[in-house]
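re the bet — no i am not wrong, look at it urself. input seq straight from the record:
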Amino acid sequence: MSRWSWLICVLCLAGCGDDIGLVNVSNPDLRAKVPAIKRDVSEKTLSDAPQLIKDLDDDDPAVRFYAIEGLRRITGQTFDYHYYDDALARRPAIQRWQEWLPK
């Protein structure tokens, strides 16, 4: 599924009427997580970078996609991370992100 297909799916889900909770990157619901990532991108803030880096190892490829896209748009970096790689292949890039993480 292309990245645009993921975006369309998330936007369709966003129209559902149930409560999604707080809009923040720690929320497991993509309908709350994605707007928080978009806010971080528009503000160019790294305050949520630890959670986004954690999300690079999420089981859900959509979560990984939005996490890396947010990080890329804020920092201009990917460290060769690919959301569609398997867990083993993602590990080196995630380690690079963890090493990069401002302390």
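see?? The mean pLDDT is 88. told u. also The two ends are 35 Å apart (CA to CA). so pay up
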